[in-house]
Every structure is written in C-alpha cells, then in structure tokens.
C-alpha cells in the first residue's frame, strides 16, 4: 500500500460512514444554508478537539467557509448536539459547545451500525466476512483515532 492507496481507502471509508448514518427526517431548515453530512462531521470532529470555540475558529482550523460552518452548527443545534452562548469576554462572539446531554438524534447516529453499508461496499452477505472487516476497522480506530497517544505530536 502506498500513500495514494491509503488516501483512496480513506475516501471509501468516509463514504461508507456517511451511508451508515441515519438521516431520517433531518433536513436543514428553510432559513439555514444546507450543510452536508461531511461538513457536519468535520465540525463535530473539530468541536471534540476544541470543546469551546467559535464559528470563525472552526473555519480557520478546518479550511471550511464560515457559511458552511455556520450551517453545520445550526444543524447540530437543531439536533440538540450543541449549544451556543455569547462569549462573556466579547459579547459579539458566540461560543459553541457540545450539549450537556445527549439528544435522541445523537443517540440514533451513535447507535447506527455499519454492517449494512459495509456489506454493500464489500459486495457480500457473508456476516462472518463483514464481522472480520468490522473488527479490523475497530482495531484501526483504536490505534489511529484522533486524540490517541499514537497521533499526538
């Protein structure tokens, strides 16, 4: 495997992950800019690494346009995953934090399995083969997930 193979595998895994997430009745409101699942996930990942932040800071760190970050934050807020509040040090700035409790939407996303989309991507109905790949992915996630010791500088 080389860098290109690894990059392409990452893109494939990202697409499988997007397919595995339940979308149900979640749609952006008419007053907000639509934010893709991928954009929302990038914002969620940034919020995990920076628990109290602003739209501008997320945009600077991720390279996403501020409008896309704002749309993602709005979707996350509508889903009950984040809360916003004025910054006490600068009332013009709004701070974004993960919601203290877990909304039903967040629970549904976290509970969704990957087996179906993974089986489709593998082109198999063999549950043993799917389970083997799931175990390999869980191993990799444990070793390479953001915030693990192996990834820290």
Mean pLDDT: 83
Order of strands across the biggest sheet?
1-2
Helical fraction equals 55-70%
Which ranges are low-confidence, i.e. pLDDT below 50, for 5 or more consecutive residues? Answer: 28-33
Based on secondary structure, the structural category is mainly alpha
Along the chain, the helix and strand elements come as HHHHEEHHH
Detailed description of the structure:
The protein has 153 residues and is mainly alpha-helical. The chain is elongated and about 55 Å long. Helix content is 56%, strand content 10%. α2 (37-49) packs across α4 (66-78) and α6 (115-122) crosses α7. Strands 1-2 form a two-stranded antiparallel sheet.
Looking at this protein, list some descriptive labels.
single chain, 153 residues, mainly alpha
Q: Which helices and strands appear, and what pairs or packs with what?
A:
Elements: H1 3-20, H2 37-49, H3 55-62, H4 66-78, E1 82-87, E2 90-98, H5 104-111, H6 115-122, H7 127-144
Antiparallel strand pairs: 1-2
Structure in a nutshell:
The protein is mainly alpha-helical.
């Amino acid at each position: 495997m080389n860098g290109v193979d690894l990059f392409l595998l990452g893109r494939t895994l990202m697409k499988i992950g997007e397919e595995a997430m339940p979308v149900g009745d979640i749609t952006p409101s008419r007053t907000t800019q639509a934010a893709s699942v991928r954009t929302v996930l990038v914002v969620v990942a940034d919020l995990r690494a920076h628990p109290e932040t602003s739209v501008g800071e997320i945009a600077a760190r991720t390279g996403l346009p501020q409008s896309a970050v704002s749309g993602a934050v709005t979707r996350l807020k509508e889903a009950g995953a984040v809360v916003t509040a004025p910054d006490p040090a600068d009332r013009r700035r709004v701070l974004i934090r993960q919601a203290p409790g877990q909304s039903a939407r967040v629970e549904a996303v976290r509970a969704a399995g990957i087996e179906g989309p993974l089986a489709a991507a593998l082109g198999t109905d063999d549950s043993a083969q799917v389970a083997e790949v799931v175990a390999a992915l869980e191993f990799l996630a444990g070793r390479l997930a953001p915030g693990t010791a192996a990834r820290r500088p």
